[in-house]
Structure formats: structure tokens, C-alpha cells
Write a structure and sequence with these properties.
The strands form 6 sheets. A 6-stranded mixed sheet has the order 4-3-2-1-5-6, with helices on both faces. Strands 8-9-12-20 form a 4-stranded mixed sheet, covered by helices on one side. The chain has a 3-stranded antiparallel sheet with strand order 7-10-11. It has 10 helices and 20 strands. By secondary structure, it is an alpha+beta fold. Bound molecules: glycine (GLY) and manganese (II) ion (MN) (2 copies). Belongs to the peptidase M24B family. Keywords: Aminopeptidase, Hydrolase, Metal-binding, Protease.
């Protein structure tokens, strides 16, 4: 595949951007390979520069050999200006969603009279379609989450605390090489399962609880994101009913994932099915999102998702039903769009698991 920086230059050409200043750590890592926590990237037509500091001198050379390294001495934005002056550009685009106002003001002062142009989503656009190597890492991250789920179900029972389960999930994933969870683990039991984002609390689980576990691994820079909902004790009729509706909505949406379907068409599959069964009001979030270096990235499977899916994109499919009196159910898989259709990366069982 064409080098990422070359693909970026093509996009810069299309958008008439003569120089680009990147401040988002994920953009920096994606483009350069540098994993350090501080630095800025400048890309012009003929130059590509990574500005960082003494701490990263040898790491940059090792991880980002394709980039010219500037070791700044406390005034990185002055180095940015030198790079831009040498390129003879009159303006530079910056990532408007990844620069604080204070940084913007400093940058503006340092670069004067070079114009600063706000820009969003350029590197994010490149990141939508994953390379083969990226897919392999995401596949591994998904497998780490699957193995953690297989273990954790053995530890779920009435009397255990949500936070203890979240901690065990963290340990189970880190034992397999994850750096951390890919987001704050959700363990939401009983009435709390009706909160779509019920981060683990001190609640002690009880018989009769639906328990939603939503977690993922951050592994070699990439995220997985899985949700399973299990039942402690026998389900009520209503609990079983909403489980089966969510499961069918989820399976139908996964089945629909293929090249060309737009985010909103995929979202419709889940939303229409749930609405037809009378629970449209109880499904208030989007059906899924892109997944990669960030746990939420492009493209979205939502009512506003215009992007047609392409091979190499990875999305989650995660419909849910949330009823304050009964509890909630969400089922989430990570799915990659392939030439032939799709491949589901998370493989944990989805049929209702009753832990009695
Ligand atoms: N818990 C984040 C998500 O599933 O999107
Ligand atoms: Mn999730
Ligand atoms: Mn998700």
C-alpha cells in the first residue's frame, strides 16, 4: 500500500492544503510510527518533519525513519515556522478538534504572518480503511477480549461487585499483552443495565439481574470493543423478550454489513427491527461506530451516517434496548468489511447465557 504520508499529500492536494500541522497524538502515531507522548508533525509538499524533544531522540530515529527529526529546545512552534518558511508557504492547516485555544494562540503568535486554517478529519479519513497489518492487530485485540469474556463468565454470580469484575477484565486482558482497556469498562447489572454507559460501580450483583459487560483491549495501538449481556438466574418473560429482539436486530445488521451499504442504511436495519417490535423509544443511541486506533472513529453507523462502507473498514454493531424497570440488553461485535462481505472479529457466543 502507498505510504500513509503520500496518501495524505494526495488528500492535501484535493483540499488545496499547502502545509499541514498535526497535534493529535493519534495522527502523529498513525503517520510517523512514533509512539512517544509528545511531538508535532508538519507535512508540506516536499518535507515531512517530526518535532519532539531530547527524551525521544533515539526513539524517533528508530520508529520514524521516514521523517526529518527536529529536536526542539523549548520553542517547538518556532521550529514549525522555520519548516514552513523553508517550504515557502503562506498558510498552514491545523487540526481544529485537537488544539486547545491556548495552544492556538501561541501557535498564531509564533507563526505570524503565516495564516492558520482550521481543518478536520484529514488523517481520520485516511484511517477509515485499514491496512492488512492493522487488521491483524485489531483481530488480535478482539481475540484478547473474547478470551477475557470466556474467563469472566466463570466468575460472574450473585454477590460479586461490578468493579471487581471490571478489574478482573483489565487483568485478563493485560495478561494477554494489552496495554490497558480501550475505554472505562462497563459492568452494569440489574437496574443499572438500563444505563447504556453504566461504568462499573460498587453495586453487588443479584439473582434476576441482566448484566451488561462492555469492554475492550488496547493492544499495539489498536482497540477492540465488545458487549455481551448475561442473565443471573432465570430471566423474566420481558427480559427474555428484549434479549431475543436485540439479538435478532444485531444479527440482521451484522448480516447486512458489506461494501457499499451506508452507515445510515446499516443503522436502519437494527432500528427498524427494534421499532417494529415496539421498543424503538428504548434504543436511543447509534447502532455502531468505526473502530481502530481510537475506540470511536469514522465511519458511524447512525441516522446521519452517509459514508458507504468499503473493504478494510472496521465497525461495531451494537444495538440495545434499555428499560428502567427491567434492565437493559446490548450485544456488540467488531466487524470488518471484506471484498466478499464481512468478517466478524469478536467471536464470543451471543445466545442468552443464563448463569444459575
Ligand atoms: N462503550 C463504548 C462503545 O461501545 O461504544
Ligand atoms: Mn462497547
Ligand atoms: Mn462500541
Amino acid at each position: 500500500m502507498e505510504k500513509r504520508v503520500q496518501r495524505l499529500r494526495r488528500l492535501m492536494g484535493e483540499r488545496q492544503v499547502e502545509a499541514l500541522f498535526l497535534s493529535h497524538p493519534v495522527s502523529r502515531r498513525y503517520l510517523t510510527g512514533f509512539t512517544g507522548s509528545a511531538g508535532w508533525v508538519v507535512v508540506t509538499e516536499s518535507d515531512q518533519v517530526l518535532i519532539s524533544d531530547f527524551r525521544y531522540r533515539s526513539q524517533v530515529r528508530e520508529q520514524a525513519p521516514d521523517f526529518r527529526f527536529i529536536e526542539h529546545k523549548g520553542k517547538p512552534f518556532h521550529d514549525v515556522k522555520e519548516v514552513l518558511n523553508a517550504a515557502g508557504v503562506g498558510s498552514v492547516a491545523f487540526e481544529e478538534t485537537h488544539l486547545t485555544f491556548a495552544e492556538y494562540r501561541k501557535l498564531k503568535t509564533a507563526l505570524h504572518p503565516i495564516e492558520l486554517e482550521p481543518m478536520a478529519g484529514m488523517v481520520e479519513k485516511l484511517r477509515e480503511v485499514k491496512e492488512k497489518e492493522e487488521l491483524e492487530v485489531i483481530r488480535d485485540a478482539a481475540q484478547i477480549a473474547d478470551k477475557a469474556f470466556a474467563e469472566i463468565v466463570k466468575e460472574l454470580r450473585p454477590g460479586v461487585k461490578e468493579r471487581d469484575i471490571a478489574l478482573r477484565l483489565e487483568v485478563l486482558m493485560r495478561e494477554q499483552g494489552a496495554v490497558s482497556s480501550s475505554f472505562d469498562t462497563i459492568v452494569a447489572s440489574g437496574p443499572r443495565s438500563a444505563m447504556p454507559h453504566g461504568v462499573a460501580s460498587d453495586r453487588v450483583m443479584e439473582k434476576g439481574d441482566l448484566v451488561t459487560l462492555d469492554f475492550g483491549a488496547l493492544y499495539q495501538g489498536y482497540c477492540s470493543d465488545i458487549t455481551r449481556t448475561v442473565m443471573l438466574g432465570q430471566p423474566s418473560d420481558r427480559q427474555r423478550e428484549i434479549y431475543e429482539i436485540v439479538l435478532e436486530a444485531q444479527k440482521r445488521t451484522v448480516a447486512a454489513i458489506k461494501r457499499g451499504i451506508t452507515g445510515k442504511e446499516a443503522d436502519r436495519v437494527a432500528r427498524d427491527y427494534i421499532s417494529q417490535h415496539g421498543y424503538g423509544d428504548a434504543f436511543g443511541h447509534s447502532t455502531g461506530h468505526g473502530l481502530g486506533m481510537e475506540v470511536h472513529e469514522r465511519p458511524n453507523l447512525s441516522l446521519r451516517g452517509e459514508t458507504p462502507l468499503e473493504p478494510g473498514m472496521v465497525v461495531t454493531v451494537e444495538p440495545g434496548i434499555y428499560l428502567p424497570e427491567v434492565g437493559g440488553v446490548r450485544i456488540e461485535d467488531d466487524v470488518v468489511v471484506t471484498d466478499q462481505g464481512h468478517e466478524v472479529l469478536t467471536k464470543s457466543p451471543k445466545e442468552l447465557m443464563i448463569i444459575d
